[in-house]
Specification:
- It holds the Pfam family Atu4866.
- This is Protein Atu4866.
- It is built from one helix and eight strands; from the N terminus they run αββββββββ.
- It has 84 residues and is mainly beta.
- The protein has an eight-stranded antiparallel β-barrel.
- It starts with a helix and ends with a strand.
């Protein structure tokens, strides 16, 4: 994502598992904040989106990726839905 598109990218915002246990907030500055259960900010790092593919790198260096399909984020065996 480049700076011009950061503020309006359609994938920005909160993505949650059906049970609400895992929550990924994709921030407009290219960072994300992941909460797990009652543990807020369990993981933080940066992300890049190219097309419908997302690459994550947390602040410890761990990497993961995912894909957006039909308004659903498929990431590391998880299914996350956009929270409006």
């Amino acid at each position: 994502m480049n700076t011009q598109n950061e503020q309006s990218h359609p994938y920005l915002g909160m993505w949650v598992t059906k049970d609400g246990y895992i929550r990924h907030e994709l921030l407009p500055n290219g960072r994300y904040d992941e909460a797990r259960g009652k543990r807020k900010s369990a993981y933080q790092g940066r992300y890049t989106i190219v097309g419908d593919h997302i690459e994550y790198m947390d602040d410890t260096g761990f990497t993961a990726d995912g894909d957006f399909r039909d308004s659903v984020l498929y990431h590391a065996g998880m299914v996350l839905y956009y929270e409006k």
